Amino acid sequence: MTTTPITPTGLLPTLPGPAYTDPATFLREQERIFEARWFCAVRAGDLLTPGSFRTVTVGRENVLITRGRDGALRAFLNVCRHRGARLCTEEAGQVRRTFRCPYHAWTYAPDGRLVAAPNLKDLPGLDRSAHGLIGVALREWLGYAWVCLADEPPSFEETVIGSVSARLGDDRAVERYRPADLVLGRRVTYDVRANWKLIVENFMECYHCATIHPELVQVLPEFAQGWAAQAAVGHGAAFAQDVEGFTVDGSGGFGRLPGLADEQDRRYFATTIRPQVFVNLVPDHVILHRMFPLAPDRTRVECDWLYAADVIDGGADVSASVELFHRVNEQDFAACERTQPAMHSRAYAAGGVLVPTEHHITEFHHWVTSLLA
Ligand code: FES
Ligand code: FE
User: Fold this and answer.
1) Ligand 1: which of 81, 106, 123 to mutate, most ligand atoms within 8 Å of CB?
2) Are residues 342 and 256 part of one domain?
3) Whether 238 and 255 share a structural domain
4) Block means of pLDDT (10 residues each) for the chain, length 373 residues?
5) pTM for the whole thing?
6) Cα–Cα distance between 46 and 85 in angstroms, integer?
7) Interface pTM, i.e. ipTM
């Protein structure tokens, strides 16, 4: 790389260790971040048929997302209005017509209406319209359903689209890859024993790339210098000259996605979308991570590899491109898991330091602490 995006000024502090372990801090993050802001929940393409559903953890709530007979996606708190049983106990599935509570069989339509209950005739006073499922705000963007538990959701444009790193060039840079039109080629779910902020910080920096990502550095040699692609304004990272595609062995990938300009060819771009999404953009596919923070020291990560429909429909073997970032994920998450136990240590009570290639992480720390203040 020719430009240095941040003037080296020495060392900056990290957050103190307890920020990654303290249950009270995690509770505040659940309340003020995951339950208060838009949260990327599910891939819309996973729910193609009426009655298909997924359930996901958002903050302290479990949210049911389903497609109605009218084709619309809707989200609800996954709680039966009778005595509070979890309505849908599976992570994913398909109902024929209705959701039936496993406890006393109150039954709800995919649009949330309470449509039946046993011995309803004994309950003449039950106002069914007042006992439907509690709805949750939902927006679709980039092919994903984003939900917001707040009574008055903040502006999606400002808080989600506006959080796409300006360093990609512009807010709409991710849309140029048209992830909504792409098809899921592979999904891997990782159960990471680390705080969600350690995972964000790790994704934001590439100081570790030379140490733990030998395959990635082969494809993106400038990463060996430690400057992350998202710290470089609109620049991305160039593929190595002898590499044909973003694959584990440098073999050729697939055709360039429609709509991409020459500037995006043979380059890798990355961004975070707050609070819990990472996007990796390469010419022939998009990799999108959604994090589900479950506990101070535990985060579920779903990683989707998305390709052009004709690649997947044609039965192409995507394993060489999946394997590259799957290895990166395993290397990154192992590093985060190695860090997590030490967050309890007296050695880290006041935190650690950020070197210049990591200074942009401070912006993330400021964002979190300002929301928790
Ligand atoms: Fe669901 Fe009773 S708790 S029907
Ligand atoms: Fe990494």
Assistant:
1) 106
2) yes
3) yes
4) 50 97 98 98 97 98 97 98 97 97 97 92 85 98 98 96 72 86 98 98 95 96 81 75 96 93 90 94 97 98 98 97 98 98 98 94 96 96
5) 0.94
6) 25
7) 0.98
